C-alpha cells in the first residue's frame, strides 16, 4: 500500500496486517488515530482531531483470519499537521522500519534513523526512541545479550567439537556464575603460528560497546608475506593487570600443549605495565618491545608536531648506532622537551639497532588491523563478536591457502620483491673476497664487510631483517651461491603454506546446539549470567571543557554577615553575629 489509501471491501491477510497498514497510513498522511475498539475480530477508529469526520471500521471474515474494511466515512479536514512527532510512531514501528537496514549495516546510527524517518515520513521522533529501537532491532536479529552469555558454554563446546584441538573456555565468577572471561584459540591458528609464522606476537585490546561492555584482548602475528595472522583472542569484563596475566597464561598453555620447545618470542605492545609484567612472568625467555605506532601517536599527541613523529620513525629504523644518535640529535634540536620526554622509554624497547632480539623489520604490531575485523560487530552480543572473527578466519585461511597455490617462487611475494631490489642494487657493487666466507663489498658511497658464515653484514640489514641485503647479495652472487638459501625460513612460500595448512571449520547455528545438547543430555553445562556491570542506557555523556571558562577568573562569594569570603550568609558559622543582629 504505497499510496496509503483505503476502500470499502479491501482485504488484509489478518488483523496484524491491517493494524500495520492503518498505522503506516496515519504516519505517512500526518494524522493521529483515536482507536475506539480494537480486538481480534473488529477494529473501529477515527481521526483524533476534534471536528474531523474521518472514520474507519473493519471486521474479521467468518472462518478465516482475513480482515476486511466494512465502512469508510468522511475525508480529513484536520489539516494533517502531525509533523513534530506521531503517537503511532512507536518503538515497534521504528524497529520494523529499520530492521532490513540493520541487517545490512550494524552501525546504522540513531541520528541516521531520525534522518531517514523524517525524509520518508516528514515526522521528527526523539533521539532516545531511535536509540531504543536500534537496541531492540539488534536483539531481534542477533538475539539478546543475556541469551548470548547463557549460550556461551554451548558455543565453546561446539568450537571444540567442530575444530578438534581448539581451545574455547568460558570462566565465571561468584556463586551465581557471572561472566568473567572467555579465551578462544583455534587449533589451525596455533599450528599455523608455530610452524609457519614469524616468532612475533602483537598484544592489544579494544573496547566492546554491547549492553554489558567488556574488552576484547587479542594476540596476533605475521605470516611469511607480512600479513595479519590472528593467534588467540578473549573477552574480559575489565581490562587490567590481572586480566592480562590471565590472558597470557592461557596463551602460554595453548602454545605449550602444541610444541615440544617453546620458541623464543618477541612481544609487541603499547607499553601497558600489566602486559610487560605478564610477558616477563609467563614468557621469561621472550622479549617485550614497544609498538612504534603507539609510541609515535603518543609523542604526536603530546607535542602536536608531525616532524617529531617523522624523526622518531627515522631513529627507530636506524640500523647503526651512529645513525640513531644523529636522529636523536635532530629530535633534541626540534624539541628539547620531546627529547627529555622520550628518555622514559629505553631505546632497547623501541629502536631497531638496540633491540636484543630479532623483529624482522616489524616495529609495529598489526593489532589495529585485527580490531578493524570486529569494528562493526562491537555493539552486538558477545557470541556474535566471536562468530564474526570465526567467519573471517575461515574466509582468510581459505583465500590465502588458494592464493599461495599459484606462487612459483621460493620466497613469499614481499620477500621476493626485497631480494629483487637487492639484486638490482648489487649489480653496481664491486666485491673483494677475503676467504671462503668473508667479503668486502664496495658501493659508490661506502664499504661493507659481509660474512656469509655468520650471516652478518656491517650495514646490519641482514641481521635485523632476516633477508640478505644488497651487499650480501653481491657477495653471494660473486661466489655463485643461491641467494634464497641464505634467507630466513620464515619468509619462504613453504612456511606461508604451512601457516594456513590446517582448515578452520564452520560452527552449526544455535538451533543445532540445542538439539545436540538435548540429544546428548549434557546436564553439566552451567548457565552463565551476564556481568553485573552494564552500559547505561542512552547516549554516553561527554564532559565538554570550554576554553573561555578555563581562562575566566573565578567568582569569589562574600558573606554579608561576617564580611568574610568563601561562604554565604545562610552558611555562615561565625559566633556572636546572630546576637549582634538582634540587638
UniProtKB/TrEMBL annotation:
Annotated SWIM-type domain residues: 439-480
A Pfam family assignment: SWIM
GO MF annotation, one: zinc ion binding
Claim: Metal-binding is one of the keywords in the record: yes
Coiled coil: none
Protein name: SWIM-type domain-containing protein
Keyword terms: Metal-binding, Zinc, Zinc-finger
UniProt organism field: Pyrus ussuriensis x Pyrus communis
UniProt-listed InterPro entries: MULE_transposase_dom (IPR018289), Transposase_MuDR (IPR004332), Znf_PMZ (IPR006564), Znf_SWIM (IPR007527)
